[in-house]
Amino acid sequence: MRYLQTKQIAVTTVRKDKHPFFEDHNWANVETIVASDTGQSGVYFLASQAEDYDKKINISVIKPSQSPGNDFFAHQISTIYGLPSPDAKLIRIDKATASQHIDRLTSSTNQRTVAGARKFYNALITAPTNHLFEMKFINGDAIDTIDNDNTKVALFKEKTFLKALGYTLPFDALICNGDRFNKLNFYDSSNLGNMILQKNGEFIAIDNGINALGEIEDYQDVPMTFYQKILSEITEAVYAGNRDVIDTIAIETAKSIASECPKLRLDAEQTRRIGDGIIAGIHKLITLDEEKIQESYAGIPEDSGKTEEALNLVLDNLRIVHSYKETSPNT
Q1: Where are the alpha helices (DSSP H) in 127-158?
Q2: Rounded to whole angstroms, how far apart are CA atoms 285 and 114?
Q3: Quick check: 4 and 237 in contact, CB under 8 A?
Q4: Where are the beta strands (DSSP E) in the chain?
Q5: CATH of domain 140-327
Q6: How do residues 90-125 score in pLDDT, each as one tens digit?
Q7: C-alpha of 127 from chain center
Q8: Which of 227, 237, 127 is nearest to 185 (CA)?
Q9: pTM of structure
Q10: What is the DSSP string of 77-135?
Q11: Burial level of 115, CB count in 10 A (0-12/13-18/19+)?
């Protein structure tokens, strides 16, 4: 048996704050709230100065959810895994204070701010916990928006970008995130809006949520065993030295992207770089420490909406990968 190897993938993660828990956001300084008019609903952009919005400066992204603790747990896993992802934090909020400042913005002369503030106010007061998951705004372009920019298309096709893209797939399988790659859902669809080409040409993955509660409505009928089967298939291929399996997944991924954005069509060598990233991702999962995952979960406040289901889901999936490590004579 041959053990598939690839050169270590070079990924750049955004700086992670060493003290992620803040007692509250500085709501008094928020002057603009805009609800996303593209991509997933329920996403809000907050800026400290109104004129900064169009310049995309000092903007944070908040997505109220049923389980912000699980969202932050997924972020912590992405850090351990080495996924290029936005800086993020879990904030504890005082709803009375926050809602008072947000209500103030409904009197703004900017109608987008008024509409965004009203929606965010309702999301805030009905949130099931006193926590919110907040991410740093990434200055870049979703890859489904770069089709008509030849310079950005060329950056997308760079070796390091495609490897980082492929590296994301095993991570998504680990946390059962089914909407980014067509391989990880029943609908042969890819959410290219969650894969970002940064201004410096580097890849970054956003909206890295654990699908432990069926919260991704379009994908809640995908059983957890589906992801486990994929993890088993890819890991077995790596241990068996079966590059054909990996390349088939890379080809399927490339075709799915090109079906939405024809100018992002890749040649055989470029497609192989996605496969290199997938292999690198499995290598990382093989060495991923279960204790670090458990410690990360334990450090998240109990009242943040985190669930043991999310922890057990990730550990069960990781143990499938580790089972090959324990039984293979080639490790």
Answers
A1: 150-156
A2: 45
A3: yes
A4: 21-22, 32-35, 44-47, 59-62, 88-92, 131-136, 140-142, 195-198, 203-205
A5: 1.10.1070.11
A6: 988 888 888 888 888 888 888 988 999 999 988 888
A7: 22
A8: 227
A9: 0.86
A10: HHHHHT-----EEEEE--HHHHHHHHHHGGG-S-HHHHHHHHHHHHHHHH-SSSEEEEE
A11: middle
